[in-house]
Write a structure and sequence with these properties.
5-stranded mixed sheet; 28 helices; 51% helix; globular
Length: 752
């Protein structure tokens, strides 16, 4: 437990100031700049003098740490350090206003503080908007505001994650999910690899503590053996690079815990089956004019000793990533039969890869301010956001905002070509339609297909690296609602919506006239109340949608007639035990849930009979008793139970953090079965399927729902869905199956 000691705290606070100055490395440190930082430091200390963190420590430790991260790990300058020190002052202390900040520290500092305050201050006027989603939207809008807002927010989140141990478990899960889903990806996109890796590792530490500890322990256990192997591997390479007369350094970098876990999850293998737990990095000191040439010379030396894996060469020197990353990656076979990843880059490339935007700006100053891929990407994001703001006629749902922008921000890229050979960059997963809208709005609106590498393709065909695309058009073609499901770029989605909205306006009167005639035929008075009632019954978003669907024939008279005959379904939340208390309070659903959590922190108890509440189990992760679970109130207003590591749950926790309900399992009757899936791999032999079936059916008395076994060239793969009582029973079954002769791996998997 933290013990308050004012004298020690005063010393630590002053040491914090010294650490900030030491971390700050400007070209020239003037007395005026130092005085400005000291002034901001003193204001922050005074403003937070009475505040303490959850740990019991003085709150000022937090802005000091954020300022230190801003200077040391983000490599930013005095303005950003001042803003980091002051980032919570306006929000937490009414004595310090933005006008005060502007007067004392200037307009730029005040604008950045305002941006940070807007991110933290989430409006709760609309109960349907998630604070996490709204925060994300405001982070994105900061692109067009000042990129330093985003960077300081990253530093703020990094320190919060480093001290997350002092938060309650439910808060840890929400914050860690949001961090993995948004902040780690954002750090990666902005080129801060170290921060991205640490945020991912810390997220995993709190989302899957047992998995994190297991992987971390195994890495530490194997480190000495790997270091001996690495020394032998690089010995001949060092000699030959030195013979070329190049200055160089060689490092071994172990993969992060999170990246190992991702590989284990994606490939459905155990830790011991991961063959590339580390990468060897060769960094050469080469002038910009020769660095590409010298990198390829080093690649030639490496492949003289070790055979390369042909499909694993990654040339990000010729075509850098959008975040400015440049490097040559090769995977080669060692003399001991182990695959090894080798990364080759110049000192400049390495600094940009490690230190992101700060290093990018530093080298940009030396290259006549030529726009790089990172500049182009930042400008593209600004344009997308500005266009989006202009085109939005109504306040947009923040969750939809995330879904539209996430591919533009976080997805891997593909490089494709126009018929004339011009390079275009699109997010991985982009379709022909995305490409068409990237060329021009009219080309997208009238797209009927394409020729990809001279072969005909449909508008929803997914593009691959190196494709050359020629778009085919017809003036008779117009955008449809279904097109929104075929594209992932925000530009394409915005243009499709714009075209559809234009058509809806044109069809509005026609549809309204038909609806009015139909209502009269049903003896219903035609007025706004009737229109709004029909809108709810038809589950359309707006009257424009309703009238448009009627005008084009998607909804006909029989459909409308049937809506008035069908009984109203009771809303899910009427079964909530606390709903009756708030029925007449006028509060939103989110407020009701929050109030209930404050009054009664007892988690939602789950059982097979759903006696206290109606809910459904997520069909992707299929939670079973014993799993660490949480309940999400979905946008469709139903309660869905997820495992906390479910990818869908992580997305929901980041987007709907205010709609999370704590949950845990009741002690169940062991005869109750919950559906789950396992996958097996191994060496095929006679009688194997019978033995597996006997263990599952007879030894454990589990019912098998489906069993698929595929064997080829002596190797088998099996997928089994079965009913189990809880996680203990499932783990016992997996252990028993692993003992069967020939079975190499058995893992529980999500259902897709």
């Amino acid at each position: 437990m933290y013990e308050i000691d004012p004298e020690k705290e005063a010393i630590e606070i002053e040491n914090g100031y010294k650490r900030i100055l030491k971390a700050w490395k400007p070209k020239k440190k003037t007395k005026e700049d130092v005085a400005l930082i000291r002034k901001a430091f003193d204001v922050a200390v005074e403003a937070h003098s009475k505040d303490r963190r959850k740990s019991g420590e003085p709150f000022i430790y937090h802005p000091i740490a954020v300022a230190e991260i801003t200077a040391q790990e983000l490599g930013l300058g005095k303005t950003s350090i001042v803003c980091a020190l002051l980032h919570d002052v306006v929000e937490d202390n009414k004595n310090y206003t933005l006008d005060y900040i502007k007067k004392e520290f200037g307009e730029t500092v005040a604008k950045i503080i305002e941006g940070l305050t807007k991110i933290d201050k989430v409006s709760s006027i609309n109960g349907s908007i998630s604070p996490q989603s709204e925060t994300f939207r405001k982070i994105l809008l900061a692109f067009a505001y000042d990129i330093r807002v985003i960077l300081i927010k990253l530093a703020d989140r990094l320190h919060n994650m480093r001290t997350l141990e002092f938060m309650p478990r439910d808060k840890q899960i929400k914050i860690a999910s949001e961090t993995e889903y948004i902040y780690a990806s954002l750090a990666h996109r902005l080129g801060y690899y170290n921060i991205k890796s640490e945020l991912e590792d810390l997220s995993l530490k709190y989302l899957e503590p047992e998995v994190y500890k297991m992987i971390d322990d195994k890495i530490q256990e194997k480190k000495k053996d790997y270091l001996r192997f690495i020394n032998k591997f690089v010995y001949p390479i060092k000699h030959d690079i030195a013979e070329l007369g190049l200055k160089f350094e060689i490092f071994a970098r172990f993969k992060s815990v999170y990246s190992i876990w991702k590989k284990m999850s994606d490939k459905k293998v155990d830790f011991d089956d991961i063959d590339d737990l580390f990468a060897i990095r060769i960094v050469i000191d080469s002038p910009p004019a020769l660095e590409k040439f010298d990198c390829w010379k080093v690649y030639s030396i490496v492949t003289n000793y070790y055979n390369p894996k042909q499909d694993r060469l990654r040339d990000w020197i010729s075509t850098p990533k959008a975040n400015g990353y440049e490097s040559l990656h090769a995977t080669v076979m060692s003399n001991t039969g182990q695959w090894v990843e080798v990364q080759i880059r110049s000192k400049r490339m390495d600094e940009i890869a490690e230190n992101g935007l700060a290093a990018h700006w530093k080298y940009k100053e030396k290259s006549d301010n030529v726009d790089t891929r990172l500049d182009q990407w930042i400008n593209q994001m600004k344009n997308l956001i500005e266009n989006h703001k202009i085109e939005s006629e109504e306040e947009e749902d923040a969750v939809e905002f995330i879904d539209e922008f996430k591919p533009n921000l976080f997805n891997d890229e593909i490089f494709v070509f126009t018929p004339k050979g011009h390079l275009r960059t699109l997010p991985k997963g982009a379709s022909v339609l995305d490409f068409a809208y990237a060329i021009h709005t009219d080309i997208g609106n009238h797209c009927i297909g394409a020729k990809i590498n001279n072969s005909l393709a449909s508008i929803n065909e997914i593009l691959k690296n190196g494709d050359q695309i020629e778009i085919l058009n017809s003036k008779k073609q117009y955008p449809k609602e279904s097109w929104l499901e075929m594209v992932i770029t925000q530009r394409a989605k915005a243009r499709i919506r714009m075209a559809i909205n234009t058509m809806k306006k044109e069809k509005f009167d026609e549809g309204k006239k038909k609806v009015s005639e139909w209502l009269k035929e049903l003896n219903i008075e035609v007025n706004d109340v009737a229109f709004n009632e029909l809108l709810m019954k038809s589950k359309r978003h707006s009257l424009s949608d309703l009238f448009f669907d009627v005008a084009i024939g998607t909804l006909n008279f029989d459909d409308i007639k049937s809506l008035y005959k069908s009984p109203e379904k009771s809303r899910w939340y009427s079964s909530l035990p606390f709903f009756g208390k708030a029925k007449s309070s006028g509060k939103s659903l989110d407020e009701i849930i929050k109030d209930q959590a404050d009054i009664d922190p007892t988690p939602l108890l789950l059982n097979s009979e759903t006696t206290n509440l109606d809910y459904t189990l997520c069909k992707i992760c299929n939670p079973i008793p014993g799993d660490d679970v949480m309940a999400v109130v979905s946008p469709g207003r139903e309660i869905i139970i997820h495992r906390t590591n479910c990818p869908e749950a992580i997305k929901h926790m980041a987007q709907f953090g205010n709609r999370i309900v704590k949950a845990k399992w009741r002690k169940e009757d062991k005869t109750v079965g919950f559906l789950t899936r396992i996958e097996l791999k191994g060496i095929d032999r006679k009688g194997l399927i019978a033995e597996i079936s006997t263990i599952i059916g007879n030894n454990f008395n589990f019912n098998i729902r489906t069993l698929h076994i595929k064997a080829s060239e002596g190797i088998f793969e099996g997928k089994i869905t079965l009913y189990v009582s809880d996680t203990d029973a499932l783990q016992h079954l997996i252990h028993e199956l692993k003992q069967v002769d020939g079975i190499q791996s058995v893992v529980r998997v999500n259902r897709r």
